[in-house]
């Protein structure tokens, strides 16, 4: 089954079976997506991870109504509000997930303050310089000795502080930089 609107007036869409049989034709609003570039398809939808189940339910309700010839259960404004809410909720969940990861990394290194690590610079901007030790799967901020470093530089650092609650890991440079 696929959605189709090729060759139709812009305000119409169709649900077409795999054998080409027209199952349903209905008005097509701005809520429809332009497709999926990476898959090179014009009409596209899919089910996703558990954090996306309610948006998937909305999609299933819309498809079911279309297949059964009923009016869409949501108007454009309702869909826009739902999409905004779902996006904000997913963004909030992603922020929590990132924070938990950062806090776990800080907890992992908490007992290793004072140790030195060979590392690589992973970020350098006005907001700070970030390093990733080569033998520990964490990233932290270089708070001392950061001048002249670029992304990709290898540098010897010493762990000087962690803050588990905030997810902070702070390093200082203890060895000279060399391009890696």
Task: Give the SSE map.
Elements: E1 2-4, E2 12-16, E3 22-27, H1 53-67, H2 76-109, E4 116-125, E5 128-133, E6 140-144, E7 153-163, E8 168-173, E9 178-179
Parallel strand pairs: 6-8
Antiparallel strand pairs: 1-2, 2-3, 4-5, 4-7, 5-6, 7-8, 7-9
Please explain how this structure is put together.
- Mean pLDDT is 78; it is low at 5-11 and 25-33.
- The chain is of the alpha+beta class and 180 residues long.
- The protein has helices at residues 53-67, 76-109, and strands at residues 2-4, 12-16, 22-27, 116-125, 128-133, 140-144, 153-163, 168-173, 178-179.
- The protein starts with a strand and ends with a strand.
- Strand 4 (116-125) and strand 5 (128-133) form a beta hairpin.
Q: Which features characterize this protein?
A:
elongated, 2 helices, 180 residues, three-stranded antiparallel sheet, single chain, OB fold (Dihydrolipoamide Acetyltransferase, E2P), five-stranded mixed β-barrel, alpha+beta, 2 domains
How many distinct folded domains?
A: 2
Please describe the biggest sheet, giving its number of strands, its sense, and whether it closes into a barrel: 5 strands, mixed, barrel
Structural class: alpha+beta
The tally of strands reads: 9
What does the overall shape look like? elongated
Main sheet: which strands, in order across? 4-5-6-8-7
Helix content range of the residues, please?
Answer: 25-40%
Please tally the helical runs, counting DSSP H or I stretches of 4 or more residues. 2
Overall pLDDT, averaged? 78
Distance between the termini: 51 Å
Strand content: 25-35%
Low-confidence stretches: 5-11, 25-33
What's the SSE pattern?
A: EEEHHEEEEEE
Computed Rg = 25 Å
């Amino acid at each position: 089954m696929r959605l189709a609107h090729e060759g139709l007036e812009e305000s119409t869409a169709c649900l077409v079976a795999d054998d080409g049989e027209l199952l349903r034709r209905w008005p097509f609003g701005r809520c429809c997506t332009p497709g999926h570039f990476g898959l090179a398809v014009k009409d596209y939808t899919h089910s996703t991870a558990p954090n996306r189940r309610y948006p998937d339910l909305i999609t299933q309700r819309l498809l079911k109504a279309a297949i059964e010839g009923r009016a869409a259960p949501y108007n454009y404004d309702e869909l826009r509000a739902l999409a905004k809410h779902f996006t904000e909720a997913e963004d909030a969940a992603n922020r929590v997930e990132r924070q938990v990861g950062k806090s776990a990394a800080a907890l992992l290194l908490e007992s290793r303050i004072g140790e030195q690590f060979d590392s690589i610079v992973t970020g350098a901007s006005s907001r700070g310089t970030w390093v990733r030790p080569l033998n520990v799967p964490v990233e932290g901020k270089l708070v001392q000795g950061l001048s002249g470093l670029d992304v990709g530089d290898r540098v010897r650092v010493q762990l000087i502080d962690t803050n588990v609650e905030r997810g902070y890991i702070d390093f200082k440079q203890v060895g000279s930089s060399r391009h890696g």
